[in-house]
Amino acid sequence: MKPANNHGIKRIFRATGFSMKGLKAAWIHEAAFRQELMLAVVMLPVAFLVDISTMERLMLILTLFIVLIVELLNSAIEAVVDRVGSEIHHLSGQAKDIASAAVFMSLALCGITWLVVLLPLLV
């Protein structure tokens, strides 16, 4: 049930707190999120150090965030599926596989974008 006084600035602060709690949970419980976040921490400075246009820089940074966002959604889907039940069901496996495929696609998008933007600088 929703809290009665959940509006205005109070709602924003509560939502921010829940978001921080979610990020902490992902960091503690999800190895893939930790790995992708560390990769983003390493790659983000590269996006600022290379001589590229502002739009290219934005594309590099956005793809890093897309990977993290999709991984968070994947982790949330896995948690809900696991919460529903531990018995093996084809729809549970399908949900997890589709969420995993979304992470794969975001990683592919990130890799292709970084390759297309940075390859001309390397040749």
Automatic annotation (TrEMBL):
UniProt keyword list: ATP-binding, Cell inner membrane, Cell membrane, Kinase, Lipid biosynthesis, Lipid metabolism, Magnesium, Membrane, Metal-binding, Nucleotide-binding, Phospholipid biosynthesis, Phospholipid metabolism, Transferase, Transmembrane, Transmembrane helix
Transmembrane segments: 60-81, 102-122
Principal subcellular localization: membrane
Localization in the cell: Cell inner membrane
Binding site for a divalent metal cation: E30, E78
Binding sites annotated in the UniProt record for ATP: R11, E30, E78, E87, I88, H89, K96, D97
Positions bound to substrate: R11, A32, F33, R34, Q35, E36, R57, E71, S100
Topology in membrane: Multi-pass membrane protein
GO terms classed as biological process: phosphatidic acid biosynthetic process
EC number: 2.7.1.107
Domain of life assignment: Bacteria
Active site: E71
Signal peptide start-end: none
Enzymatic reactions: a 1,2-diacyl-sn-glycerol + ATP = a 1,2-diacyl-sn-glycero-3-phosphate + ADP + H(+)
Coiled coil spans: none
A Gene Ontology term for the protein's cellular component: plasma membrane
Alphabetical list of InterPro entries matching this protein: DAGK, DAGK_prok, DAGK_sf
Cofactor: Mg(2+)
Cofactor annotation remark: Mn(2+), Zn(2+), Cd(2+) and Co(2+) support activity to lesser extents.
GO molecular function, one term: ATP binding
PANTHER family with a match to the protein in the record: DIACYLGLYCEROL KINASE
Protein family per UniProt: Belongs to the bacterial diacylglycerol kinase family.
Function: Catalyzes the ATP-dependent phosphorylation of sn-l,2-diacylglycerol (DAG) to phosphatidic acid. Involved in the recycling of diacylglycerol produced as a by-product during membrane-derived oligosaccharide (MDO) biosynthesis.
UniProt name for this protein: Diacylglycerol kinase
Species this chain originates from: Shewanella oneidensis (strain ATCC 700550 / JCM 31522 / CIP 106686 / LMG 19005 / NCIMB 14063 / MR-1)
